[in-house]
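Q: For a teaching session next week I want to show students how multiple molecules come together into a single three-dimensional assembly. I've collected the sequence lines for a complex. Could you give me the predicted structure tokens for the whole thing so I can convert them for display?
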Amino acid sequence: MVKPTRVSNSIRPLRFAAGEMTQAELAERVGVTRQTIIAIEQGKYSPSLEVAFQIAHALGVRLDEVFSYPTTTSNGDSA
Amino acid sequence: MAEHDMGFEEKIAWAGVIVSIVHFAIYLSVLVTRAATTPMPETPYIDAMLWSIGAAIVVMIIVTIVVAVTTGRDGHEMDIRDKQIKARAEFTSRGLLIAAALAALIFAMLELDPFWIANVLYLGFFLSAMLETVTKIALYRGGVPAW
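A: Of course. Below is the structure for the complete assembly, covering every listed component.
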């Protein structure tokens, strides 16, 4: 059964912090289309690990500063 | 409203839906018109089928060239997301194609007229292509869910 991605990201604010990088510029550096960057920012597409690392590298930050995933507590609730 | 910028592949998918519907509608209307004076299995269909397939291919080539020329530099090459969407759409539509092939196989075993065998296959191609392109559009607009 398919489910929406639970991965969230901070690409948009990090782009602005990185000299107001445009979506097109980030897409060019990562090697994907601008539409893919838009989809990732909107949570409509979960990038591969390789693309995720490339995005973090292009933004000059660590992977976990760009992407986050809800952790589950011991009783199964998301944090 | 969240921004949605159509890339090259999504534009081609939209064009594919329209061209598929138009070409199959034209083929059906020719068939029905001819069947008004002839029993259906004896209705000439080969020329109409070949013309509609050929015309659809030519139109899609032209549309693809026009879209490529008018689309900006970005979004031309298929990236990993485009490839994943394409693979998912093909996977989704595969069942219809298999169903049409099975139907054609059964028709052949029952020794039905070649008219029915050819047209059930053609219907399968059309429905499969429609499902594939509609699935692509849905994934581009709604997002690609995880498995």
